[in-house]
Design brief:
The protein is mainly alpha-helical. The chain contains three helices and no strands. It has helices spanning 6-30, 34-47, 52-64. The longest helix is centred in the N-terminal third of the chain and has 25 residues, at 6-30.
């Protein structure tokens, strides 16, 4: 069994966390909880600020639901 270095594991956990926030945002969108969706998209973007897809999704929501 190969043990991963702690730094590599933290990176994987961060990716999982970002993905979870984004997925929650999509779920909230589907059930009409727009404020909660925006909160989740913002959290995903905080953790992965360079992700263009997240930026576009958040911008789309903020413009549509002002």
């Amino acid at each position: 069994m190969i043990r991963q270095k702690p730094r590599a594991r933290r990176s994987e956990l961060k990716i999982d966390l970002v993905s979870s926030h984004y997925s929650l945002g999509i779920l909230y969108e589907e059930i009409g909880e727009i404020k909660q969706a925006i909160i989740q998209f913002k959290e995903a973007l905080k953790l992965d600020s360079g992700n263009v897809s997240y930026k576009e999704k958040l911008y789309e929501f903020e413009e549509e639901f002002k």
